[in-house]
Amino acid sequence: MKRRMFIKTVGASAVAYPFASLHMDAASGPGDYVRANTDWLANCRYGLAVHWTAKTVPREGLPLPFQGAVDAFNLKKFIDDVVYAGADYVLFTATHALQMLPAPHPVIDKLLPGRTCKRDLIGELADGLAAKGIPLIVYYNHSCNGKDDPEWRKAVGYDGADKNVLARNLIDIVGWMGDNYKDKIKAWWFDSPYSLDARGPFKSVTTDMTGFQFPWEQFTVAAKRGFPDRLVTYNSGIVGGKAQNFMFTTHQDYWAGEELNLRAPAQARYLDNGLQWFGWTCLDDRNWVHTKPNRQIPKPLYSDEAVISHVRSCNSHQGPMTFNVGIYQDGTMASASVELLHRLGEVLGRKDSSDAAFFRSDGSHPVTGKETP
Questions:
Q1: Per-residue pLDDT averaged across 216-235, rounded?
Q2: CA–CA distance from 285 to each of 210, 231, 243, 323, 327 (Å)?
Q3: Mean of pLDDT values over 35-42
Q4: 201-206 long-range Cβ contacts below 8 angstroms, 24+ apart
Q5: What letter would DSSP give residue 191?
Q6: What is the pLDDT of residues 238-274, one digit of tens each?
Q7: pLDDT, the chain, mean
Q8: Do the beta carbons of residue 235 and residue 192 sit within 8 Å?
Q9: Are 231 and 253 in contact (CB under 8 A)?
Q10: What angle do the packed helices 121-130 and 75-85 form, to 10 degrees?
Q11: In principle, which of 3, 48, 237, 297 could form an S-S bond with 326, CB 3.0–4.6 Å?
């Protein structure tokens, strides 16, 4: 079952991070966490997101095997379209329903060979965007949702008796990526924590978690390896058509903000729980992933006026809005959606990433690290 639909319906040796040696940052209590600076995100107008996954199909014809699709991904056109769309950042899906990563990863290779690629599409994307002054946010899903990927949930330890093995494996996966990409990944967007922890309002745990509490604080520490300023969020899901504000841990920096429509713009920069406001919704295909062969991605769901009004309202409270744009297997995005975002950018006024407003409060740029000119 697709993750979004589920929500709507209720070779190389691994680099190991020993579970027992991980520590919470600064202290052990939830009140001791110091959130990372979100100024750069608050100063963004809107971002572009894509669900390009192992299940994404081409506009026409048969899909390529995942590794072949990664090799054929037209990165130059994708980045050119991002720039044309005027996006201030990109949110790119690393893994979704299937644990198939478009990059090398020794930890995943050790757990289940054949789930990674030789081409480092994530690294290439980060470098290409950085050259344009555009930050990269990476979406990661542990892929242990229902029956989406039974082979992976067994390999990673989701169905095992000792859930500490599961936690250690997931911590090792994100920890390795953090160390490997360093400041190339400016933020994480972690999905499906509700399949690891039944405390939240949306519940999708499908294994016996009796007596086990997932160590979110240690997971956050691993997520910030290689770049302590990296932002972290955990999606708490949608219940009754409304995005939830529940926190599985206070050790996160901004709100995941997954929304079904444009009916709930930002009311303030920070939520009552202290998290930086962030919004993310579909601009065209409500299924998020283009999985229907030989079909066009749907036209935008909203008029220019509706999108412009919503973004302006969010921006008035320093709330960045993210639009998920349909994408085909070759990396080509839905042209009608890209054009709409281009018009949005023209109306709002081009944000030059060299502008002082785009820099962090300490004067450094979120991508290049250079100080304000």
A1: 98
A2: 38, 27, 18, 11, 10
A3: 98
A4: 201/236, 201/237, 201/239, 201/244, 201/246, 202/7, 202/10, 202/236, 202/237, 202/238, 202/239, 202/244, 204/6, 204/145, 204/146, 206/144, 206/145, 206/146
A5: E
A6: 999 999 999 999 999 999 999 999 999 999 999 999 9
A7: 90
A8: yes
A9: yes
A10: 40
A11: 297
Cβ atoms of 3 and 237 closer than 8 Å: no
The answer to whether residues 186 and 230 touch, using CB atoms and an 8 Å cutoff, is: yes
Contact 331, 78 (CB under 8 A): yes
The tokens for 137 are 């946010």
- Give yes or no for a contact between 264 and 314, defined as CB atoms under 8 angstroms apart: no
Band (32; pLDDT cuts 50, 70, 90): confident
Q: Which residue has the higher pLDDT, 55 or 373?
A: 55
Residue type, 109: D
User: Any residues with CB less than 8 A from the CB of 203 and at least 6 apart, and which?
Assistant: 194
Domains along the sequence of the chain with CATH: 3-16+41-358 (3.20.20.80)
What SS3 class is residue 90? strand
pLDDT in tens, 322-369: 999 999 999 999 999 999 999 999 999 966 555 544 544 455 556 656
| 168: phi then psi, degrees, rounded to nearest 5 | -60, -45
The predicted-structure confidence for 286-326, as pLDDT tens digits, reads as follows: 999 999 999 999 999 999 999 999 999 999 999 999 999 99
pTM, 2 dp: 0.90
Strands 46-50 and 321-324: parallel
Question: Is there a contact between 330 and 72 (Cβ–Cβ < 8 Å)?
Answer: yes
Token pair in block for residue 147: 């029956």
Q: Is 263 exposed, middle or buried (0-12, 13-18, 19+ CB in 10 A)?
A: exposed
CB 342 within 8 A of CB 86: yes
- Paired sense of beta strands 238-239 and 231-234, if any: unpaired
